[in-house]
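Worked Example 4.2. Consider the chain below.
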Amino acid sequence: MAMMIIKNHVRSISLPSRSHPSTAAIEESLDKLLITMNTKTMASSSESVYSGLKGLEDLYDCTEDLLKMGPTQSVLSFNDERKKIQREFMEEMLDGSLRLMDICNVSRDLIVETHEHVLVLQSRARRRKDVDYSGYVGFRKNMRKEVKKLLGSLKNINVGLAMRERDHDQDGDVQFLAVIHTMRRVVSMTVSVLKSFLEFLSGRQNGKDIRSKLAMVLIMNKKFHDHDLIVKNELKSVDSAISGDSCSQEDLHKKLEDLEVLIGRFDQSLEGLFRGLIRTRASLLNIISQQMYM
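Applying the procedure from the previous section yields the following structure tokens:
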């Protein structure tokens, strides 16, 4: 019943549907990632966020393949009929990739800093009973401020995408429109996954998240055991342990160990995403550079 309700709420990014044989593989990857993000088990929100980031790595592999295809390079090559639209689209993609790279880079910095603070807490907790948590608490406060800025940047990217898609010529070349639409879906999906990741970092819970609402309803109705539905956030778990008095040193050690493992997974996935963004940007620049010698 739970999964049925969730699946009924799976919805695509709000861009009109277009497809073409040349974009079939990447469209399939996009749809697969969308389903993963919407139907991932509620038992671990950290696992859901991690799966989204890993899915982006695969998505950018498909994106690179798409941009290396002859038909794709052909429809993105400037010609007199659609030169203005092509130029604007390429500038849009290059600007978007640069913004996403910046957000990804800052996110990785936050993860690295978090890891450093976790190591300090582990070291201090091993040496003495009374541990000074003020440094970590201050860092978490600053992290939330930085995350808020990054979320604002992501929102601006999505707003721009929606405006351009709505204003776009709907009667152009089918393959050209398919490539444009697909690339915009890639950017929009990246924004969506990074938004979930950043909200996880800040400890925010999306009030519109059907999974969170459903989890609470099922817990209240006692239809599932609590351990099957608890939404897991290792960062919030450590925050709660530090701010409360009921957590033992052993429990804190375990929570810090769990967080350290998660941080390593996030860092690896963000590095993979960053490399994917670089490759996509390089492919776009390569297509543009080819125009100069034609």
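The chain is about 80% helix and 0% strand. The chain has one domain: 2-6+18-291. Compare this with Example 4.1 before moving on.
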